[in-house]
Amino acid sequence: MEETKKRMISGIKPTGHLTLGNYIGAIKQFIKYQDDYELLVFIADLHALTLPIDPKELRQNTKDLISVYLACGLDPEKVVLFKQSDVHEHAELGYIMACNSNMGELSRMTQYKDKTQKISNKESIPTGIFIYPALMAADILLYDADYVPVGIDQKQHVELTRDLAIRFNSHYSDTFKVPEPVINKQGAKIASLSAPEKKMSKSESDKGTIYLLEDLNVIRKKIMSAVTDLGHEIIYDPENKPGVSNLLVIKSSLSGIAISDLEKKYEGMGYGEFKRDVADTVCEHLKGLQDKVREIQSSGAIDKILADGAAKASYLASKKLNKVYRKVGLRANK
Ligand code: TYM
Question: Are residue 13 and residue 115 in the same domain, yes or no?
C-alpha cells in the first residue's frame, strides 16, 4: 500500500518584485519537495494589502509570481497552486485566529517591529500589519499541514502558528495539526549585496537586491559592486566575511557545488574574478527563468491553473472551517 504523503504548505506575498532571496530561501525548497510531499503553494495576496499597494502593481506582481512559480518548475499536476483571495476561508479563519491571539504575542513579532520601526507616527501603523501573523496562521492551519518550508525570517510566525494551534486545541478540543517550519540548511537568509549584515529584501535597498525579473546587465553590475570584506581570501566565514560568504552561498545554491569545493576552486583568485564567476552563474540561471516567464505569460494558461488550484484548496479549507465554526459555537454541533 502506498504510504500517505505528509502535507506541506507555503506562500509568497506579491509585494514588490521577487528577489533571489525568495528564490533560494523558498521557491527552490518547493521544487525539491513537490515529488515527496503533498504540496500546496499559494500567492499570499491578502497579505500584500497589509501595507499600502497600488492595485495595478498588485495585479502585475500576482501575475509575475504565478509565472515564476511555474517557470521555476512547480508542476500544477503535482502541486496545488492557488491565490489566497480565491479561497475565502483564509480571511474567515484569519479572523478567528486574530480573536484567539493577543496584543502581547503579536507585538513581539520581529517582522512587525522591523516593518513599523520606520513609521514615525505610531498612531498611523496599519492594523493589517499587526494582525498579519494571525492570517498566516490561518493559511497554514486550514490545511492540516505537517510542514511549512520558509526562509529563516518567517520561522517566528510559524512558531506563533504552533502556539495558536495548541491553544485552540486545548480550549476547543483537537482541531488543528501543529505544523513545523522547514528551513534550508544553506540559503535560509540570503543577505543584501550592499549591506551583508541585512537580509536581501523586496523592500530594502535596490542595489543590494537582485530581482528575478530585472535586466541581466543590471544584475551583473550589482554583483560586481557587491560589498566584499577585508583580506583577500575566498572562504566561508559568515562572522568575519559576510559579503564573501553570501556570494559563496548564492553560487553554491544555484550551481549545486558544495561550498567546500568552491573554496578550493577559488583558492588564490582575486575578488574581481570571483564576482565575475558568481555573476555568470546568476545571469545564466536567471536568463533561463526570464525566458520561461515570458513564454508562460503569453501562453494564456495561468487563469485555468489558478482556478483548478483554488477549487482543490477550497475543498480542503471549507471542511476545516466548518469544523472550526462548529467548535466555537457559530454552527450547530452535530
Ligand atoms: P515573503 O513574501 O516575505 O517571503 C517569501 C518567502 O521567501 C523567504 N525569503 C528569504 N529567504 C532567504 N533569504 C532571503 N533574503 C529571503 N527573503 C524572503 C521567506 O522566508 C519566505 O519563505 N508571510 C510570508 C508569506 C506567507 C506564508 C504563509 C508563508 C503568508 N502566509 C503561510 C508560509 C506559510 C511572507 O511575507 O513571505
Answer: yes
CA distance 273 to 269: 7
199 an active-site residue?
yes
Q: What's the N-to-C CA distance of the chain in angstroms?
A: 33
Q: Is 115 a catalytic residue?
A: yes
Whether 239 is covered by a domain: the verdict is yes
Q: Counting atoms of ligand 1 from 1, which one is nearest the CA of 154? A: 20
What's the domain range around 80?
7-188+300-328
Tens of pLDDT, residues 158-210: 999 999 999 999 999 999 999 999 999 999 999 999 999 999 988 766 889 99
Residue 93 CB–ligand 1 contact under 6 Å: no
Query: 151 C-alpha vs ligand 1 centroid, how far in Å?
Result: 6
**Residue 38, beta-bridge partner list:** 7
Burial 11-27 (b: 16+ CB within 10 A, else e): bbbbbbbbbbbbbbbbb
